[in-house]
Amino acid sequence: MKAGLLPKLLFSPSVVVIMICVYGYIMLTVYLSFTTSTMLPTSELAGTEAYHRLVNLDNWWVSVRNLGTFAGLYIIIAMALGLGLAILMDQRIRAETLFRSVLLYPMAVSFIVTGTAWKWLLDPGVGLERSLHLLGWESFSFSWIKDSDMAIYCVVIAAVWQTSGFVMAMFLAGLRGIDSEQVNAARVDGARPWQIYLKIIIPQLGAVFVSAFVILAHTAIKSYDLVIALTNGGPGRSTWLPSVFMYQYSFTRNEMNVGAASSVLMLGAVALVVVPYLLSEMRKAKHV
Amino acid sequence: MSEIQAHITMAADQQSVSPVQIPVKRICLYALLIALAIVFALPLYVMAANSLKPLEEIRNGNLMALPHAWTVEPWLSAWSTAQIGVQPTGLRPYFLNSFLIVVPAVLLSTLIGSLNGYILTQFRFRGSHVLFAAMLFSVFIPYQIVLIPMARTLGILGLAGTIKGLVLVHVVYGIGFTTLFFRNYYAAFPGELVRSARMDGAKFFGVLWRILLPNSAPIIVVTVIWQFTNIWNEFLFGASFSDFSSYPLTVALNNLVNSSTGVKEYNVHFAGAFIAAIPTLVVYLVSGKYFVRGLMAGSVKG
Lengths: 288, 302
Description:
The complex is a heterodimer of chains A (288) and B (302). By secondary structure, chain A is mainly alpha-helical. Helices cover 70% and strands 0% of the residues of chain A. In chain A, α3 packs parallel to α7, α3 packs antiparallel against α10 and α7 runs antiparallel to α10. The mean pLDDT of chain A is 90. In chain B, 73% of the residues lie in helices and 0% in strands. Chain B has 16 helices and no strands. Chains A and B meet through α1, α3, α4, α5 and α6 of A and α1, α2, α5, α6 and α7 of B.
């Protein structure tokens, strides 16, 4: 039905809010990144000065490198573990619901809670290392969280723990949606179960791989809470991510233009991952 | 149980040489699953067990062990006397803050989402596809990009550092999700029902009120759970836009754990983390199916 005045009128507040608070604010932040803003926003333009400063800051490159390490490992491990778990769950097991609940509950809790729990679990003074010492494994050493070269891997561990159950649920839904005819045929031809998975089933999960990748990648770029709760960016700045950099420069180091510039680059990174995905999804939806 | 799996297992059954092999495989499978389940459950167990121990027992003992001398003291401390920032208030006032933020924000954003979903699916107007795409993209943006202008806006509106301000922020950035959920649900709604109601003279609100909403229970539940979980667990907006009086629970918890000077009260931290996790865990346990459905709906965004 063609929309009359009433539907348009009732829809417009949402449109106005989104246009201002999402797209308007994005433009404002982009604008700020070209100004001399320090503690407070100013409108005095300074060209690309903030970007020049950004790319010359060691803190920025530490954050970007950390994001590369974190995102790469997080995406690969969460996907591999999620797929592995989904295949295990798909073996006609008993108490599937119970297992699924245990694997998925971390998704329900806040990253701050996750960070707090893992912070002490990974702490050599009270956590896993100490527990294994008490069990008699005296030489066991696990102090990554205190080591500036290794702390970023602790962020990976906690993030994988939180999300791989979710990735499993995505893959499980994919596994259960596969057409069984080809599988039947392969079975008749005497293919082994692992061959069936590797050659027939997994190649059909392409769409799930793409969705999982997009979700994990944009989660990684936006990650902030977990790092704050787990390591607070430390030791030193060894677990800074661009999100931490942005907050630091915008609100505590009084270099708002640099903070704004960093958030523009974060948005760019997310857009690079998400926009092609959304376009292809919408195109698909139109064809159906 | 999936049909494919049945076939694969049948194939395995047929190939196996001796009948003993199958139980061995199954036992390995269950052993692996149980081991993984233990790893996943471990942090929750550690939080629970150590929140019920005296501090001495954690410092001198094993984090994995059950308490010897059980005590609820850490819970009482986390709830009502622990130091948050400068005040020894415990998490209680912030628990309340989170509810005061979450309840109106969830209700408002769900209401707006249902209205938008209805309008987007049952009416045609120019630009509706583009506007929906714009809302969809807003779901993905890193919120860092809106932080500075939003802080300024809240200041101008006199809402900086207030509960109301946080409600507003969560409603604004929740509209994308809720609209998406309802739009996808109503897009699959049988069109004849809507048409025949219109033929019977139902107007705009009549159709929504008498036809769509009575059939929307599943999507309302999914949306409410999704919004509740997201807003309850949110940290960045809370940390950016609140002050001592309006901290949400996540910010207060982080404050408790990371700003404590002197003796680290691990047991109190674990109790605090558990307190912060309880509402969303309860929602998850009570409505697991809808929680997963929300995750899926939120992940397949087209």
